[in-house]
Specification:
- This protein is an alpha/beta fold.
- The chain has a domain at 14-117: Beta Barrel (Elongation Factor Tu (Ef-tu), domain 3).
- It is built from six helices and 16 strands.
- The strands form three sheets. A seven-stranded antiparallel β-sheet has the order 4-3-7-1-2-6-5.
Length: 307
């Protein structure tokens, strides 16, 4: 299948992605083993929408040889050149050869990037948006929360703005307090942040499911149940390790709450050619087929994933 065709899930962005030399303009550690890098790349910054990603590669190196996908965390204009977004931020945890090498890249260095890629969040109107993050999953969620609160607008000129939400809550789980990288970004956007840690060093002691139960009640939610309501009373957007997302999907399904998940899958190309990032996705008949996370995803309806 050509990477440039449209799919039943959404528009394919791979045909518009170009290999672009970029310059690192900021790079700093923001939490234990977690770094934030900003690149000067208008092609990505001006076009990316919440939930999309880019492929980054370190040039002039063959170890690591391949690029790696990183969620677009946020984008910013040049403060001296109008409102067009020029800079793209990515947040990553150091794990493996690529991120270990990326950690040592100084400001002023060149990276190769292509994007934005994938289909991001395309949810309908929702009164209360709940962002659920595990591990480094917050990277896919900040822009979504900012846009739905009217704190920022993303994407190319002329893109219709999605409907605003009255409330955005973030339930974020980690092993310990030192792993919450960028929590102030969420609070600055007006997002109500709740934390859970396995060791009890910040917020609730327990898992993110324990946190959801504590915030919304073990038997239900704080919102009225109304499956056909417009806007929906509650919607969950989730990103993190697969077992955690599967648990969140079950939590939402028990309460008849709609839920989208942003899958984190290893990939080599980012444009639908290599088929290394496939996920088992159910169809309308109850069967399943493989779908490419980079093209048909990374965002899917949680009820469609064959966990």
């Amino acid at each position: 299948m050509s990477a440039a065709v449209s799919t039943a899930v959404g528009t394919c962005y791979a045909d518009a992605a170009a290999f672009t030399p970029t310059r690192v303009v900021a790079h700093a550690r923001i939490a234990d083993n977690t770094w934030r890098i900003r690149i000067d790349c208008p092609a990505i910054a001006a076009a990316a929408t919440p939930g999309q990603f880019a492929m980054l590669r370190i040039p002039h190196r063959n170890d690591p040889l391949l690029a790696r996908p990183l969620a677009v965390y946020d984008t910013f204009p040049d403060p001296e050149a109008g409102t067009t977004r020029r800079y793209a931020d990515f947040v990553y945890a150091v794990h493996g050869r690529f991120t270990t090498a990326l950690r040592d890249i100084p400001v002023g260095s060149e990276l190769i990037a292509w994007g934005p890629l994938g289909n991001g969040f395309q949810m309908p109107a929702v009164h209360h948006l709940v962002l659920v993050a595990g591990g480094i999953g917050q990277t896919a969620l900040l822009a979504l929360g900012r846009e739905r609160l009217g704190d920022a607008a993303y994407g190319p000129a002329g893109r219709p703005l999605p409907p605003r939400s009255a409330r955005v809550t973030c339930c974020w789980g980690a092993r310990h307090a030192g792993l919450f990288g960028g929590i102030d970004d969420f609070r600055a956007a007006g997002i109500d942040v709740h934390q859970a840690t396995l060791d009890g060093s910040a917020g609730l002691r327990g898992t993110v499911i324990d946190l959801l139960d504590a915030v919304f009640g073990a038997g239900g939610t704080s919102e009225p149940a109304a499956a056909a309501a417009t806007p929906r009373p509650l919607h969950v957007a989730c990103c993190g390790p697969d077992p955690m997302m599967a648990a969140v999907a079950r939590w939402a399904a028990r309460r008849a709450v709609s839920c989208d998940v942003s899958l984190e899958a290893p990939m080599a190309c980012g444009i639908g050619i290599c088929f290394t990032c496939v996920a088992r996705v159910r169809d309308e008949t109850g069967g399943w087929d493989y779908r490419r996370t980079c093209v048909e995803g990374p965002v899917f309806d949680a009820t469609r994933i064959d966990w």
